Amino acid sequence: MFQNEVAESQGIRIRRRPPTGPPLHFVGPFEFRLQNEGNTPRNILEEIIWNKDIEVSQMKERKPLVTLKKFIDNAPPTRDFVGALKAAHSRTGLPGLIAEVKKASPSRGILRENFDPVEIAQAYEKGGAACLSVLTDEKYFKGSFENLEAIRSAGVKCPLLCKEFVIDAWQIYYARIKGADAILLIAAVLPDLDIRYMVKICKMLDLAALIEVHDEREMDRVLGIEGIELIGINNRNLETFEVDISNTKKLLEGERGQLIRQKDIIVVGESGLFTPDHVAYVQEAGVKAVLVGESIVKQSDPGKGIAGLFGKDISV
Ligand SMILES: O=P(O)(O)OC[C@@H](O)[C@@H](O)c1c[nH]c2ccccc12
Fold first, then answer.
1. Domain ranges of the chain
2. Where is this region: Disordered (predicted)?
């Protein structure tokens, strides 16, 4: 089966870029660039993935895997991402916070004009964040690997999640070299075999893998994969941008919730969390951690934003 057919059989709607790319000109009497005939992205996530494909193939040419592997041997050890979340949860009795260093997003535009990633990261740490998430996609989120590196070099102690659209194992090695302690893998984009393979690479590199799901089918696929410690439930649909925090509750009900507790998997509630009520709602649903960007990054002091989000100071 071809790559897209394997993906489709698992309910994955995101297609990988056609190898030839969309035709750029008229050929013969007909325009071949037909809308939605396989050569135009159908939604924003698909567009991001097709761009990422080009970006990664260019970066791989400049820094082939053999070169990256040499740097890995000298990279400092990673810090325990999952451990930090668990420790925060038992210290505060509230979900451990992964605070996101996020300048912009395709759905919300620019979130913060004067954006100093290191300053924001330090404010988050001071405000009681257990871990940080750093967006590294430049084109759609105005993030960068330089931000990740800078935060790590500035002496921030919170473990760092590299927030990327991973489609190739090369990106995992790259993230590790740039200072990541954990990496995001999105089930809406990656077939089971890729997730299995990438989770193994993460283990080999001592990185935590946060596997992100958005619906029941993705959750069931991921629960069928061995060795997963961390699942994120995204309340935002990355194809339509619709946000609904009851999604977290829906995916943790019944047998799924039971299986997750049995397997001792930590669930992270992601996106659209703005108030102490929101946090309490997803905690009630069963999450032990939350991933929050917009509501805290927008505050003039993002550290105080954390106290606002939880309804109390969690820094002590
Ligand atoms: O800013 P919010 O609504 O608090 O969301 C943060 C985070 O969940 C969101 O940025 C996110 C979750 N999964 C993603 C995947 C790609 C890009 C971004 C994301």
1. 3-20+29-69, 77-310
2. 1-20
- Identify the pLDDT of residue 26: 53
Distance 298 CA to ligand 1 centre (A): 14
Q: What is the DSSP string of the chain?
A: --HHHHHHHTT--PPPPPTT-S--S-BTTB----TTSSSS-SSHHHHHHHHHHHHHHHHHHHS-HHHHHHHHHHSPPP--HHHHHHHHHHHHSSPEEEEEE-SEETTTEES-SS--HHHHHHHHHHTT-SEEEEE--STTT---HHHHHHHHHTT--S-EEEE----SHHHHHHHHHTT-SEEEEETTTS-HHHHHHHHHHHHHTT-EEEEEE-SHHHHHHHHTSTT--EEEEESB-TTT--B-THHHHHHHSHHHHHHHHHTT-EEEEES---SHHHHHHHHHHT-SEEEE-HHHHTSSSHHHHHHHHHTS----
Q: Ligand 1 pocket test: which of 234, 298, 309 has the largest number of ligand atoms within 8 Å of its C-beta?
A: 234
- The per-residue pLDDT for range 49-100, each reduced to its tens digit, is 999 999 999 999 999 999 999 999 889 999 999 999 999 999 999 999 999 9
Q: What pTM, to 2 d.p., does this model score?
A: 0.94
164 lines ligand 1 (CB under 6 A): no
Residue 292 in contact with ligand 1 by CB distance below 6 A: yes
Distance 294 CA to ligand 1 centre (A): 8
Does residue 247 have its Cβ closer than 6 Å to ligand 1?
no
Q: Percent of the chain having pLDDT more than 90?
A: 86
Ligand 1 center–CA 254 separation, angstroms = 26
pLDDT tens-digit readout, 127-169:
999 999 999 999 999 999 999 999 999 999 999 999 999 999 9
Determine the topology of domain 77-310 in CATH.
TIM Barrel (3.20.20)
ipTM > 0.95?
A: yes
Ligand 1 site, residue 100, Cβ cutoff 6 A: yes
